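1st attempt posting a full record on here, be nice pls
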Amino acid sequence: MKTLLVATDFSANARHAAEYGYDLAKQIKADMVLCNAVIVPAETPQSGVLVWPMDDHDLLLFGSTCELENLKSDLEKNARPDGFKPAIALKNESGTVADVVESYAENNLIDLVVIGTHGEGMNSFLLGNHCKNMIEATTKPLMLISPETRFVPLKKIAFATDFTDPKNDLESLFHLIPFARILGAEILLTHIYDGETLPEELRKNISDFMTEVSNKANYPNIYYRSVRNSHVEAGLSWLCEHGQVDMLVMVHRPHSLIYRLLKSSHSEKMAGRLNIPLLVFPSKK
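the predicted structure (as tokens):
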């Protein structure tokens, strides 16, 4: 993993995500891009047919550049002189966050996108339009950082799956392994189920999946654990809180676990707060 892109709108939560991204870049010895999407009034639904003056548009971009440079300077001040210092590039452009990030990622070598959520725990990304749009649009692994997330070395990564699409889960898992290897982290494959016992068909799917992992992963630090809970959100929250998990991973695709969470009612609340990073692998286009 060579380059992280951190999307920022200069809010307190976005700044927190940038600080987390910088600490992660130092840990894995990667470089970093700070990216800001400049949304001008003419690009919002409320603006109607108004034309935004070019001079003012340039002024917004100039202000964005100044803010990016200030953020870069603040991040670099916290770097230890005897440690790895990530190179920080700056990028800004007018447009939506998803469009600007995807355009840059498509034309540059970006391995991971980092974005902050605006609220508490996992429920914030369920309700946050920017995060929802990013999850739907991204073609790169996307890491979501809540305001409660504190940086710690990532040593235990939980990969949540329902085993309904093992081929795509394996593809994402094999993409995750090089990242885990750099970190020296173990991967915990986990499944939330409801009922007294696992159905026989599911047991077979899990057994076949683990056999495939054993034969092809070439990484010994992969384990499996099921969690019994009638609510997926509550089960994941419990695992993250009590299982010494440092990061949660999900795969986003139609009918996947995270897809169902995103499409769930806004009245559904998390039984707990997710205070660790959430890494989302994109759906296959």
